[in-house]
Amino acid sequence: MSLYLSCDSLARAVGADAVASALASQDLQRTSSRGLYWLEPLLEVDTAQGRIGFGPLTASDVPSVLDALQGEPSSHPLALGLVEELPYLKSQQRLLFARAGITRPLSLDDYRAHGGFEGLTRAVTIGGDETATAVFDSGLRGRGGAAFPAGIKWRTVRATQATQKYIVCNADEGDSGTFADRMLMEGDPFLLIEGMAIAGITVGASYGYIYVRSEYPQAIATLNEALVIARTNGYLGANVGGSGLAFDMEVRVGAGAYICGEETALLDSLEGKRGIVRAKPPIPALKGLFGLPTLVHNVLTLASVPLILAKGAQFYRDYGMGRSLGTMPFQLAGNIRRGGLVERAFGLTLRELVEDYGGGTASGRPLKAAQVGGPLGAWVPPSQFDTPLDYEAFAGIGAMLGHGGVVVADDTLDMAHMARFAMQFCAEESCGKCTPCRIGSTRGVEVIDRLLAAPDQNGRDEQVILLKDLCDTLQYGSLCALGGMVSFPVASALKYFPADFGLQSSEADQ
């Protein structure tokens, strides 16, 4: 009887290692996580019908679970039944996370047994032109926030003449409520390696870097071990997958600056400089790392490529809506009953995500809002929860999907405080290069403080006008998205929750 327990860092943080120690005498395999985080530590057991689950477990629950397995497992109070039949998981459309919770992170045999390196084999067979065309035709867009078509980047870098080109993976996952990159790097590292190898041999790059935030020590260690295994087995090095082309890569560790999630600041950091945003043009595809053509994508974008090559561009396009094609791993966090990862095709609504998957607030109090897209994302009120999760649909309501993080809040959250926090966050994390972000964010904190302290109606009205003008200046005058998008949480808080600022609705809508 085989048992499976996640080695994901969140599962370990809530006691998975202690559960593993209590199961030391059993045939236990440590796998990636399913992303059903409210059930971790989640123990899965092989049966004739499939894997059944128990969770969330503590080490003290282990003896009773083992006893139940000798008789009627469903009688145990923590029994969940067949894991893949759980509504939260069964209704998902997992492409990127198809192996999540099933394979061992560093087992090449597990990876290959579940479709691993089929995409690389296909890319080697059809050549660079057709591979770049497949990525373009799939409609894949960058999953880091800007949602720029990936295929255009690939064709640009491929067509640019240079003696050296680079692939850079932006794994500096710094947005609040996001963890999909970490989950994938810790749980399925060969998928990212395969995606980068395909990119390298397609665009003519011979070297790559994965820029990982220092707060992810387990992901860093797992990636480094996976690179050694991939290199030893011919998936990296002088003859990638038998292609006759060279591509190798390494992990670089960031020092915790949020601004290094912006691609040009990340490139400066990789070059050993302070991470400061570069003016564009030139774009990184033409003049990036060390002044050479560089393909920069985040983890989820690069990890989508192997499936597109293995299954075909049309297979990928069959998921999603409008120009938002494929699937997106949404991450539920904050005041939520069932936090975790939900991978679905674009087009489901925020209400489905928060209420059907998440189960509403963990506190049981009414929903007040959800911040979508990280600390610079807009606060979306329940009145707009029926908006489809689609890049264009969200842009239409003054919001963004970003990296897919969704942080839920109940009716006790003070939105004026959150607006002030957004400005303060921007002030602290600004690289300092452009005046609107460097100075404007600090002035934003001061304006909000004056607004909240204003003794009368006229004083509040004056500060609201000033705050809105400042948001416009930040949005349209900043060099990058840090200053440019700090207006989203501030303006949405002001628009939908004026009472938190001591305002009447008419004042906030002026």
Automatic annotation (TrEMBL):
Domain NADH-ubiquinone oxidoreductase 51kDa subunit iron-sulphur binding: 416-464
Residues annotated as transmembrane: none
Any GO molecular function: FMN binding
Cofactor(s) annotated in UniProt: [4Fe-4S] cluster; FMN
Matching Pfam families: Complex1_51K, NADH_4Fe-4S
Gene3D superfamilies: 3.10.20.600, 6.10.250.1450, NADH-ubiquinone oxidoreductase 51kDa subunit, NADH-ubiquinone oxidoreductase 51kDa subunit, iron-sulphur binding domain
Protein name (Swiss-Prot/TrEMBL): NADH-quinone oxidoreductase subunit F
